[in-house]
Design brief:
The structure is a single chain. The protein has about 300 residues and is an alpha+beta fold. The protein folds into 2 domains: about 190 residues, 2-Layer Sandwich (Alpha-Beta Plaits), CATH 3.30.70; about 80 residues, Immunoglobulin-like, CATH 2.60.40.10. Helix content is about 15%, strand content about 35%. It has 8 helices and 17 strands. Strand 6 and strand 7 form a beta hairpin. The longest helix is centred in the first third of the chain and has 10 residues. It is elongated. About 35% of the residues are buried.
């Protein structure tokens, strides 16, 4: 692109806009509509210049990964769709030969179904495990952001169109605007240490990557052991406040976003109804349920 054309497209605000996808982990309920919609789109269908048909088995271009957190009775299961991240500094492009992979001006990464033949190194290069090897066709394949549909007037990819819980939100905007949304909504990316500059962002990613501590608070009230509603629970580490919660009507609480393998914490519970409590706990790799904790008399 020559300089005049570049300035013209910048001024027009067209080619500077790029596609991004926001995935809200808290909204995904594992219905797998996104997975099935992608299968429906690509099994038995060739889209020349975009993608060859997807095999019926083994490929999960939209892969629903899961994470169970907690201990009985406070346990939760969370789900996270993972697909090609359409990275701006894509590792797959660094190993591709003969122009097998292109980065479009709208941010979408396309693995050419003809030029990529025999290049299994493209599969191994993806740190997200989002590129699959088509053994029959001897080509690497991945989710193409439904570029073939967007190029024909669609305003959103099928993963978003098919999702009943609004777990997906696609945006075609300038990079500066996307970074502003990232900061405002506390979005994260997978494997940030790899610095691949992905265009798939995650909301509530802590549901997959962090730990929580939970428990049930009771107290003797008029000689009867009762659940304590409205008690203040605070978690501190090395003198720093790491989180606070209020017990519900069942006396239960949960404080989230604690780092795995982060060591010892101090927990304090205070309630005008039944006194207070202080204890130590340690976070290893998993979330904790501290059991039923009885407040001492105030």
């Amino acid at each position: 692109m020559d300089g005049r054309r570049y300035l013209a497209t910048r001024a027009g605000g067209v080619m500077s806009e790029k596609w991004n996808l926001i995935v809200d982990v808290a909204r995904c309920d594992n219905c797998r509509n996104c997975f099935l919609a992608t299968k429906d789109e690509h099994i038995g269908n060739d889209f020349p210049g975009y993608a060859a048909s997807q095999p019926e088995k083994e490929h999960s271009w939209v892969d629903i990964r899961h994470k169970e957190r907690g201990q009985y009775p406070i346990v939760e299961a969370n789900f996270m769709p993972v697909m090609c991240n359409h990275c701006d500094d894509a590792p797959c492009m660094k190993v591709a030969k003969d122009g097998a992979i292109t980065k479009r001006e709208d941010g979408i990464v396309i693995i050419d179904p003809e030029k990529s033949k025999g290049q299994q190194a493209i599969v191994d290069a993806c740190p997200y495990g989002a590129v699959y090897w088509n053994e029959e066709k001897q080509i690497p394949q991945a989710w193409i952001f439904d570029a073939h549909l967007l190029d024909n007037g669609w305003t959103k990819p099928r993963v978003q169109q098919s999702c009943p819980t609004d777990a997906f939100r696609s945006l075609k905007i300038e990079d500066a605007a996307m970074q502003k949304i990232k900061e405002q909504e506390d979005l994260e990316v997978l494997l940030p240490e790899r610095a691949t500059k992905p265009r798939v962002y995650y909301k509530n990613l802590h549901l997959m990557t962090k730990c929580f501590v939970s428990g049930s608070v009771v107290a003797d009230i008029d000689g009867i052991e009762e659940c304590v509603d409205g008690a203040t629970v605070q978690v501190r580490k090395d003198g720093n406040d790491m989180g606070q919660a209020t017990t519900d009507v069942f006396g239960e609480f949960k404080i989230d976003k604690l780092e795995p393998q982060s060591g010892s914490y101090e927990l304090q519970v205070r309630s005008s109804a039944g006194g207070d409590l202080s204890m130590q706990f340690t976070i290893d790799d998993e979330s904790l349920y501290l059991g039923v904790m009885k407040l001492s008399a105030g």
